[in-house]
Amino acid sequence: MTGPPPLHTGDGTAPTYGRLLLDHLLAGTPSGETPLTHVAEIPAREARYGDWPQWAPDPLVQAFRERGVDRPWSHQAEAAELAASGQHVVVSTGTASGKSLAYQLPVLGALAEDPHATALYLSPTKALGADQLKAVTELTSATDTLSTVCACAYDGDTSPEIRQWARRHSRWIFTNPDMLHLSLLPAHARWAHLWRRLRYVVVDECHAYRGVFGSHVALILRRVRRVARRYGADPVFVLASATTAEPGAAASRLIGAPCREVTEDGSPHGPRTVAMWEPPLLKDVTGEHGAPVRRAAGTEAGRLLADLVVEGARTLAFVRSRHGAELAAMGARRLLTEVAPDLVERVAAYRAGYLAEDRRELEAALSEGRLLGVASTNALELGVDIAGLDAVVVAGFPGTVASFWQQGGRAGRRGQGSLVVLVARDDPLDTYLVHHPQALLDRPVEATVTDPGNPYVLGPQLLCAASELPLSEDEVDEFGAREVLTDLADQGLIRRRPHGWFVAPGVEPHGDVEIRGGIGHQVAIVEADTGRMLGTVEAGRAPATVHPGAVHLHQGETFVVDELHLEDGIALVHAEDPEWSTSAREITDICCISVDEMHDHGAVTVASVSVEVSHRVVGYLRRLPSGEVLDQIILDMPEHTLPTRAVMYTIDPELLDRIGITAERVPGALHAAEHAAICLLPLVATCDRWDIGGVSTDLHPDTGLPTVFVYDGQPGGAGFAERGFHRIARWLRATRDAVAACECAAGCPSCVYSPKCGNGNDPLDKAGAIAVLGAVLDAIEGSEPA
Ligand SMILES: Nc1ncnc2c1ncn2[C@@H]1O[C@H](COP(=O)(O)OP(=O)(O)OP(=O)(O)O)[C@@H](O)[C@H]1O
């Protein structure tokens, strides 16, 4: 073992508590293993305060004081003042930095000042909305002037009686984009009291609105502004976001109006030690084509959890799946049985769905110290109020830098030192991050990507808007929907009348728009025994994700698909938790429809293109958690076509020849470069690798050249590929570095193997990929420095 990196301390004298915990983990590491790739110390930060605004009613200030808030932190005061002056504002600061107060203050101030004023609160999950409602109700019931606020939840679980009561009496409705879309907007006349005096719209955790879901929400918020306007109101939007790059620009895109940003975090935190951890390669296990595999991140997290619990550190481990969370907790308990049997009962897995009671019990058990260690799925990520932890283990990069900090930010009781460990999964992006920690630690968090102009989102949303209130010509332009409107009119769905655009009789668009499920025809996933509907998947993705035999994860629970009926839009499943996961094998073809933007770099061309991707699923692989492939099963599924957007590059064959990539190596080199690029795209666009796909070929019929495409997996595109096009140099440089840094000889899941490869990871040429990516970068950077 090479020994830990040099000791850093928070104050220059004694090691911080986080560093002591890390040293303890290193001491428990089996000899011969060197998992620690980097350690960073984030120094403590002192609190910076603002003043209570002049306009804040005394009883409200008093209520905050009674809850331990003597003075607002600077960012809270700044955001509240901006909102109260009528400006839309987004507050984008760290986990547990008191973003709630930043919106509670102006909203409750306005509701106290005007007894008829109303407000809306939106959250991406019901659980978060319930927590926030509870906090607001505590404040209003402690303040006489706010007793008429009657804050109330309005979501799928609200009973008809409460709904009726809420419509009449509540001045602050806590809801979500789904209910806005399906109920408050289409039935706006029944909510006239809310719309008429709507002063504020709070959009909590707004970074969660990304990709196609984000595009839907962006258009729903435009519909909100439009309906409010019709009732004479012009609400101010207050948005809360995890730290992201350009939060003001993202928030402005989301609400469709200029939005100020507040990013200087005035809340205090103790010194934090952040460690990057890479589990070792396993000696006796190999994966596809005999490639080496690493110890699973969940298993490693279990060991770290046990070690931290032995030290008395309150620890939360985030694991990607429920199965993984259970394995991690079980692993920790097994280790504790040997070394500290009295601690076994103080480690648990968090396995429930999203029930508020379960979360509260867990919060209480952890904060009271009854539990010392919990392994949880990401279900706990959003909004849970556990801030008193000593250590957080993040098993597998959670997909975005924002999520990583949201999870890691849970560590640190006010003022005390804490430890955050990122355990890499066997995957190129994780491998890259633990070897290039500056990409995670020093870079601003990625910007949230939404594309409200996607015609597949805009069309149905425009119909919804028109059915709520006829559209004026100005509004059509405001939505940027001239072209889409013409299409809808051609299809007879919308008609021009003297007073604007009206939907055709009989058109009821709302129910057909799946704001979370994506676009177009949906397949319902139903548990056959109970009839319980688990969710939906887009028809286009169904053959690859819910084919017979597919293992389907739903909120951490595992099911196996028995039947898929595409015409009827239904997939039948049963609860079963086999030890393997499945991944479809498919044949993919891509065809360029138009070139939207192109950069010529001599032997290399890069373009943003509209494409049509056709898929046919031909079978699937069953794979053990270790990465080992059990077998391949043949399927015969119909072909499906996806119109979408892609980023592509072509390379002159002469250049390939010059860098030593002979003709027979080209397919493997491009294929490997494509796989790795897909995994690294989340570094420049807030997407998951499952949101995107790729195709590579040594001779594409549309370009006549060796070509690599990376495309958005949603009809019409989601903005991810486009971001890749605009950041191509940074993206491909990270891709090349990730592949080059991997210690395997000829490719493995940490660099060029993909768990969802339609071609069974064949052919793949790792060295070829490094050479190709290098040549492409030289060409791009030679003619246009990044
Ligand atoms: N000015 C303040 N002074 C002292 N404590 C505060 C102040 N503002 C908020 N708090 C406390 O900080 C904690 C975190 O607040 P809150 O949950 O609003 O943070 P958040 O930024 O919304 O968290 P998340 O990142 O989970 O969304 C709460 O317990 C709250 O009472």
Record field, number of beta strands: 29
Q: Give the overall shape.
A: globular
C-alpha Rg, in Å?
27 Å
What is the CATH level 1 assignment of the largest domain?
Answer: Alpha Beta
Instruction: Based on the coordinates given, report the CATH architecture of the largest domain.
Output: 3-Layer(aba) Sandwich
Low-confidence stretches: 1-10
Which ligands, by name, code or SMILES, are bound? adenosine-5'-triphosphate
The percent range for helix content is 25-40%
Put simply, the count of helices is 25
The secondary-structure class comes to alpha/beta
**Approximately how much beta-strand content do the residues carry?**
15-25%
Main sheet?
Answer: 7 strands, mixed
Protein name: DEAD/DEAH box helicase
Keywords: ATP-binding, Helicase, Hydrolase, Nucleotide-binding
Give your account of this protein's structure.
The structure is a single chain. The chain is an alpha/beta fold. It has five domains: 17-34 and 297-425, 3-Layer(aba) Sandwich (Rossmann fold); 58-262, P-loop containing nucleotide triphosphate hydrolases (Rossmann fold, 3-Layer(aba) Sandwich), CATH 3.40.50; 455-512; 522-575, no CATH class; 586-783, no CATH class. Helix content is 34%, strand content 24%. The chain has 25 helices and 29 strands. The strands form six sheets. It has a seven-stranded mixed sheet, sandwiched between helices. β4, α6 (160-169) and β5 form a beta-alpha-beta unit. α22 crosses α25. It is globular and about 75 Å long. The model is unreliable at 1-10 (pLDDT under 50). Adenosine-5'-triphosphate binds at residues 67-69, 72-73, 76, 95-101, 383, 385. It comes from Rhodococcus sacchari.
